[in-house]
Amino acid sequence: MKDILTAPFMVEMIRTTTNMYAQGWDERNSGNISLLLYEEEVAPYIDRDNVIRSIPMGFDAKPLAGCYFLVTGTGKYFKNVQYDPAKNLGLIRISADGCSAEVLWGFSDGGKYTSELPAHLMSHMVRLKADKEHRVIMHCHPANLLAMTYVHSIDEKEFTHTLWQMCTECIMIFPDGVNVLPWMVCGTTEIGEASAAKMSNARIVVWAQHGIYGAGRDLDESFGLIETAEKGAEIYMKIAHLPRLNTISDKQLRALADHLGLNVREGYLEV
Ligand code: 13P
Ligand code: ZN
Q1: Which CATH number belongs to the domain containing residue 32 in this structure?
Q2: Closest atom of ligand 1 relative to the 29 alpha carbon
Q3: Does residue 75 have its Cβ closer than 6 Å to ligand 1?
Q4: Catalytic residue numbers?
Q5: Based on the domain organization, do 98 and 229 belong to the same domain?
Q6: 89-148 pLDDT, tens per residue?
Q7: Which of 54, 145, 160, 257 is the least crowded, having the fewest Cβ atoms under 10 Å away?
């Protein structure tokens, strides 16, 4: 077996969690990531017949039976992943009945996967239907996006439109828009189901007064989505209390969308 710490997916996960912490998005244990891995990717690094532990999940993820995920651990700090990946991360496989997570590597101190696994797995199911190449669900707590949910309407069209106006890149990076869930108790199957439903037509779901979920084909893409939305929110929080003398009009956003051939969320621009 090759050393799993040298696997490209592991190196990328360690770099990403470290970088997210550096951005200030993941204080203490906040945030979680799950990365879907293909069997041929994990095969050189782990014995797939050696299940270390099987942890009941308390919900049914049957459509993902047999799927492998590299997942952050509950209560674990992103800042520490680089120093002890085996303690802070785990590689799981969803059991044949869809109800347990089989630990194949990691969670070495007896820990387990993130408390937000329901939201992650349910979102994976929905995004895989929308995009066969989908692989990542990423959650974190970026300050400006959170701040925005206190002072801006959380109507999805209004929230998206404001972000699109905050910097030119926003509509280019998330033309599908941002969906928003009102505050709910986190870590539950209920918020998992609600988040997944919101993932059907957008790759970003904001949890009001809590954080953000981003979906993507790889860690870089999900990171970039969150980074761009957070930049938009940062600009909003800098200017919201000031008179606005200029903005990006819907006509200009439409011109940009036409120029780049963007698939802009239906009904979100007035022209
Ligand atoms: P976990 O430590 O269980 O991943 O929870 C962090 C978090 O952000 C909850 O929403
Ligand atoms: Zn959170």
Answers
A1: 3.40.225.10
A2: 2
A3: yes
A4: 116
A5: no
A6: 999 999 999 999 999 999 999 999 999 999 999 999 999 999 999 999 999 999 999 999
A7: 54
